[in-house]
Amino acid sequence: MVLLSLAVIVDAIVGDRGLLAMLQAREQYEATTAALQQEKAENERLREQKARLLNDPTAIEELARGELGLMRPGEKLFIVKDLKPPAAH
To answer: Shortest CA distance to 10 belongs to which of 22, 21, 18?
Structure first.
């Protein structure tokens, strides 16, 4: 009887549906839930960006300037290089 009780207790802790498996499943659930929240936030950000690009002409210009480096006709580009400070004596 004691061996049978011990086997049931061990199975309840480390079995396929035991305490350890339940804790691992809970941990995986929480990680998946957090990843889902991040994806939902990213989707919302992309929806907002899409709406802005569809409705705001300045958004398209900002994107073209920032990502593609485009300029308006007549604009001039100045490249300023960092200079090293003079050596102190």
So the answer is: 18
Asked if residue 48 belongs to a domain, the reply is yes
Return d(Cα 28, Cα 31) in angstroms, integer: 5
Residue 37 in any domain: the answer is yes
In a domain, 31, yes or no: yes
Tokens of residue 50, six digits: 């899409």
Cβ neighbour number for residue 38 with a 10 Å cutoff: 10
22 compared with 52, residue with greater pLDDT: 52
* Residue scoring higher pLDDT (42 or 77): 42
The residue whose two tokens read 């995986």 is 28
Cα(68)–Cα(75) distance, integer angstroms: 15
Q: Which structural domain, as residue segments, surrounds residue 56? A: 2-68
